Amino acid sequence: MDQYYDTCESKGIGKVRWQRRGRRGGRHGGGGGGSVHMKMRKLQRLIPGGRRLKPDRLFLKTADYIMQLRSQVHVLQALSKIYDPTLSNY
């Protein structure tokens, strides 16, 4: 179970959520970085709308999401070249 902590606001840092990582070798397999089940759960949390998808649909949605992110990167790079011509050499 993940536990979260808030920093003290009196330090002027504001609220920060800290996540404690679980031990390896727990009830979900462990060993080589986590079981397939745990990796699927992590992927479901990363992909928008992924929590309600079955694995086959999750993989398709993941591929679509990667392509969408790539497109956004290309658009941002093009915009940065337009607004800052010194970056056109990169």
TrEMBL record:
Keywords: Nucleus, Transcription, Transcription regulation. One of its GO terms (cellular component) is nucleus. Residues 19-38 are annotated as: Disordered. Its main location: nucleus. GO terms for biological process: regulation of DNA-templated transcription. It is found in: Nucleus. This is BHLH domain-containing protein. It comes from Cucumis sativus. The lineage of its organism: Eukaryota, Viridiplantae, Streptophyta, Embryophyta, Tracheophyta.
